[in-house]
Design brief:
Layout: H1 4-13, H2 15-26, H3 33-61, H4 71-77
Helix pairs in contact: 1-3, 2-3
């Protein structure tokens, strides 16, 4: 089971994206428009994957995917 240290590690991994964008920015004049667009699309996919992983870790740690109310209790109010 993941813990708060896993969450902290995954949050810190997000700073790598800033470094990647800075590296890409330094090459803007050297890359073709097609290469630049492919790099940006690729970074977008990586960020989406990382965000999903981070969300799953957060839900696991804080038990956010578990029901908070018993279904039987809900039935009595309907």
């Amino acid at each position: 089971m993941k813990d708060r240290f896993d969450l902290e590690l995954e949050i810190n991994e997000g700073y790598n994206f800033s470094s990647n964008l800075n590296n890409l920015a330094s090459k803007v004049g050297e890359l073709s428009e097609n290469d630049l667009m492919n790099a940006l699309i690729g970074l977008g996919v990586l960020i989406d994957c990382h965000t999903e992983k981070l969300h799953e870790t957060m839900c696991s740690i804080f038990n956010l995917n578990k029901p908070t109310v018993d279904d039987n209790v809900l039935d009595t109010y309907q």
